[in-house]
Amino acid sequence: MRFKDEAHVLRIANKIVGAVGRRVDESQPMVDARLLDGSRVNVAIRPVAVDGPLVSIRKFVKQAYDLDSLTESGTLRAPMARILSEAVRARLSILISGGTGSGKTTLLNALSRAISDKERLITIEDAAELQLQQPHVGRLETRPPNIEGDGEIRQRELVKNALRMRPDRIIIGEVRGEEAFDMLQAMSTGHEGSMTTIHANSPRDATVRLEQMVGMAGFNMTEATIRAHIASAIKIIVQLQRFPDGKRRVTSISEITGMEGSVVQMQELYRFVRTAPIKDGTVTGEFRATGLRPSFLDTLVMNGAKLAENAFNPGAPL
Question: pTM for this structure?
Fold first, then answer.
C-alpha cells in the first residue's frame, strides 16, 4: 500500500502497536511490538527519525525451521546438528551468540524441537516471537512503562517470576541486561538445559558481554566470581554470522570447560573456514571439526546419544 502523508503513516503505526498495548509518540518515539501473526515490528518517529516515521516489519515463517532444514540450507552440517540436539536432550545449557539478523532466534526455535514434550517450559521475551512446539509452554512478555512512566515490567522481573512457576527449563529470547544474573542462577540451580541468545561477535565476546550484564545487577561480586558463575552455568556457545552473500552460518561451536585462574576456559569443537576470497558476492568455505573431543561427551553417551565415530575427526570437511 502507499501512504498519503506522514500523518497517515503515524495512524497506521499507532494502530499496529496499540493492538498489543504499546504506544509511540514524541515522549516514546521508538517501540518494539509484534503483529497478531507473530511478526516483529519496530517503529521510530520524529524526533529520532529525522526524515519522518520508519516502520520495519520482520515476518517469520508459519512453520518454524528444524535442524534438518537448517542443515539443508547450509547453516550447519549434520554432525554439528546431531551434537547440538543431543546436548539439548542431555539438558546442557546453551548460549546462542551472533549479530542482528544472523539467525539466532531461528536456531533457538530449531534446537527447542529436541526438548521432550513432557517438560514444562517458560519463555521470556521483549516481543513474543519464539515458536516452541511443546504442549506445556508458558509465554511471558515484557511491558514498557505507560504515559505516566509507571507499570514497566522488565525481563529480570519475569525471570524471577518464572522461577516460581516450576519450569523444567527457562528460555529467554535475548539476554541484554541485569536479568543475566538471574538467568545464570536458574541454569545453575535445577533448570539445566535452559537456553538464550546474546548479541556478540565471538564466543569470547559473548562471555565478556555476559560478565558486563551480570555487573549491571548491582551485586558486589568480583570479576573472578562472576566468571566462575558463567563457567558453571553455561556449557555450549554457538556462534552465528550472516555473511555478505546473505547466508547465515554457524561459524563456531565451543564448550566452556571451566576456569583457569580468573579466566573462563573454552575449547572450539567445530568452525566454519573460508577457503577462497569472495567472488561475485559468494562466500566459499567449509565446516570442519577441530579434533577436540568435548568434555560432555560421556554425558551425551550416558543419555543414550549415538554419535558417528568420525564426528570429531579433524581436518576433513564435514
Answer: 0.89
